[in-house]
Predict the structure.
Amino acid sequence: VIPAAGATAAADIRAQLVEIRVSILAQEGMRDDTYTNSVNPIYVGMSDSGGGRNFSITGYLNYRWKLYNLVVKPRNLAQ
């Protein structure tokens, strides 16, 4: 039986995948006119992995922002 092209690609991904990185930029709380965020734009991503980008928060400087970085090392991907 010859596997479908998608099955081959999925098997290759499972064999090569080492970790999954996810970055989430979240707004904390409500607007606070007494607070001004000092960083604009905010870099979202992990620079050591070569991925990420700058997000402009112009117009949202009176909000507090939190950056969450998750790193997952998947296991049991073999079929």
